[in-house]
Amino acid sequence: KKTVDLIWNTFNNLDPEFSLIFKDFVENGQIDVFPKKGKRNGAFCMSLPQETPVYILLNFSNKLSDSLILAHEMGHAINDTLVRKSLHALYRDVYTATAEVASTFCEDFVLEKFSQNADKETQLALKMMKLNDDVSAIHRQIACYTFEQEIHKNYRVKGYLAKEQIGALFRKHMKAYLGDYVELTEESDNWWVPWSHIRMYFYVYSYASGLLISKYMQNAVRRDNNFINKVKEFLSAGLSESPKNIFMKLGIDITKKDFWNTGLNEVEQLLGEAETLAKQLGK
Length: 283
Ligand SMILES: [Zn+2]
Fold this sequence. Notes:
Blueprint: H1 2-14, H2 16-27, E1 31-32, E2 44-46, E3 55-57, H3 64-86, H4 101-116, H5 120-158, H6 163-178, H7 205-223, H8 228-236, H9 243-249, H10 257-280
The structure holds zinc ion.
């Protein structure tokens, strides 16, 4: 009940249509909430053919992270509902590069709303958690992307690469984002082995692009509530145009460095807030 209220209130502040879609999901039984025997772990937003409803599958166990996961999956669900409303089935999907925009957008606003009522210690813990997640989604994935680029380049010149050669490249790029504060042991040279996304060539960039676009939009909505209409236009556009053209129509040029820097500045600002709060708390 608390989670439903938190999410409904956050969505309703953003746009009444968001809270209405959420209310429908709750009332129509489109959210399978609790874990049960035989159910897979994790969470998922299931979009079936046009005529059938969208479903959300959760394993809710009453933690804040569970509420954020529901907000995240509702982002996918809202995205899908808006695309269905405005386009025919052929365009009904989202691009990999922007698939996680709606989900992170909803998740971040719900976390912000929750933080407003938390005590200072909790606020600091939440900011640190968020920073960790943001760095993992942006900097770590881009480090992986540049690692992949170098592997492919090397492979074209040298052909077969031994695991030690790949490991050395991996360490170089991980070190580039971790800096001198994190010590990388020799074993960490093998971390690329279980990193499954590396087998989906260059997929990793989509986490960074999705979150940075989402952060640009969060920033714009905070400055001007009416920007939510542009967010909805974007969420309704599906595969009707390339992401670049969809944004162009909204008056946003994503080929400009400034666009991406807006998202990065949001992370920088969060770091500043965490530092100030830590000082206040005598940490
Ligand atoms: Zn997602």
